[in-house]
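User: Hi! I'm working on a homework problem where we have to compare a predicted structure to a textbook description. Could you give me the structure for the chain below?
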Amino acid sequence: MNVDTTVHALVEREASEAAGAVAQLTDEAASAALAAAAELLAERSRDVLAANRADVDAAELDAGSLDRLRLDDARVAAIGDQLRALAALPPLEREVTSWTLPNGLLVSERRIPIGVVGANFEARPNVAIDVAGQLLKSLNAGVLRTGGAALRTVTALVDDVLRPALERSGLPPAAIGLVRTADREGARALVSLPRLVPLVILRGSGASTAALARLAAEEGVRTLAHAEGGGVLYLHARADHEKARVLIRASLDRLGVCNRLNVLLVDRDAPGLAALAREELAALEIEATAERGHEWANEEDRIATVTVTEVAGVDEALEVAHRDSSGLAAAIVTEDEPSATAFLDGYRGTAAFWQATTRFTDGFALTGAPETGINVDWTPGPRGPVTYRDLWLRQYRVVGDGTQQR
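Assistant: Happy to help. Predicted structure tokens:
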């Protein structure tokens, strides 16, 4: 066997085993497994952190990527808290609505599981738990594939936490599979199995994720892609200066995350705001640049960079936000309600904010459920933070009495 064939066989085996587990998943057992995973994570945090230290020591990544890769006691505890919170959330409502036709047929619109969902994500260990948790909560099985830099950590999370938790709750451990190779062919294999893995969640850098999305489309696999990020913050002419300062800082508390400040727009009719913005960026050791159209958190030489652009009011701010950002999120700072309303109504991205930072563009922060990622597609379907409430297929269930005919 050559390398490609071997990798494809490994991925197909994981997907086949996960598919066999789908029918055994129940709401009660899935929630119990998530609660058990939180307990096991606390018990085995030392092993998980040791695996993570090995990954960090071996990694050749930029500062932002290292920040996403690195775990510590606080981050592990936060993952456990999210698992417990997810376990306690109500299960997905399976019946949306129902009605009776004039001929007596009872029709119900229902949500059913997808089956096996793949996930390819960057070297960010917490994503493994976030995605697996959402899949189990929605009664889907999954196959995870992470960047090679995080493989030790994710393997520890799957083998020492998730799978034992599933077994403890009476569920097949194979419900969460793992691509156990750093070979990038694993990602290509994952998006090439339409019968086994009809949907793949993609998270990572724009170029590689876009290439996987194209391959998936060719293979007949649907994707939910989280390839780009970066928030927009617009300081309107009637912005309160103190709120502007606070929100600039709140938008840049972490540089290696997708919902941080990317493009800072300043109303040119308020020159004091431009000076304030540059002063705050300098204090945070962030370089102000005029160059637009980049996703700073994914580019090594732009991690500590924010684009600062002057605009002539709300209309131009919206134009720049739509043209020069990914469409993830945009915020306005202003005391003028009509201007805020015009901005909120005009922005077409996944989340619009008034007097609040785009850092809140996050499944757990907004909905109380960890996310699989943030989908910025401009098409119908799950958009913005995707949680277990989005991971289902619509099905019509029809019950008659044997007498109805067309």
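For your comparison, note the following. Residues 3-227+376-397 form a domain with the Aldehyde Dehydrogenase; Chain A, domain 1 fold (CATH 3.40.605.10). The chain has a mean pLDDT of 92. Good luck with the assignment!
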